[in-house]
């Protein structure tokens, strides 16, 4: 995403629109460029769910890099 005020907020609206709960967000410095950060987000939902797929499609439009590191069923 572009480094501008509100960019993270705008990107995360994809989850709000689809009513997906975020359980964690973490930022880490990028190894590629000084003052560039990567964001790691945990959500409730599986990537096979239509609402999660829609949110990921929207998120891809507003980010320069999006990778799903894992998608697991909820432990009960």
Can you put this structure into words, describing what you see?
By secondary structure, this protein is of the alpha+beta class. The chain has one domain. Helix content is 32%, strand content 20%. The chain has helices spanning 7-17, 50-62; strands at 22-29, 37-43. A two-stranded antiparallel ribbon has the order 1-2. Helix 1 packs antiparallel against helix 2. The mean pLDDT is 93.
Draw up the topology in text.
Elements: H1 7-17, E1 22-29, E2 37-43, H2 50-62
Helix pairs in contact: 1-2
In brief:
The chain has 76 residues and is α+β, with helices and mostly antiparallel strands. It has one domain (1-30, 52-76).
Q: Count helical runs.
A: 2
How many strands? 2
* Biggest sheet descriptor: 2 strands, antiparallel
Q: Which class of secondary structure composition applies to the elements?
A: alpha+beta
- What string, H for helix and E for strand, traces the elements in order? HEEH
In the predicted model, the low-confidence regions spanning at least 5 consecutive residues are none
Measured as a percent range, the helix fraction is 25-40%
Mean pLDDT: 93
As for the number of domains, it is 1
Taking strands numbered 1, 2, ... along the chain, how are they ordered across the largest sheet?
1-2
Principal-axis shape: globular
Beta-strand content: 15-25%
For the record, give the distance between the C-alpha atoms at the N and C termini, rounded to a whole number. 35 Å
Tell me the radius of gyration. 13 Å
Characteristics:
single chain, 76 residues, alpha+beta, two-stranded antiparallel sheet, 2 strands, 20% strand, globular
């Amino acid at each position: 995403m572009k480094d501008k005020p509100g960019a993270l907020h705008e990107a995360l609206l994809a989850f709000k629109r689809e009513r997906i709960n975020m359980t964690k967000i973490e930022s880490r410095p990028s190894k590629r460029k000084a003052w560039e950060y990567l964001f790691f987000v945990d959500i409730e939902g599986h990537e096979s769910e239509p609402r999660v797929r829609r949110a990921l499609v929207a998120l891809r439009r507003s980010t320069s890099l999006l990778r799903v590191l894992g998608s697991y069923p909820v432990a009960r």
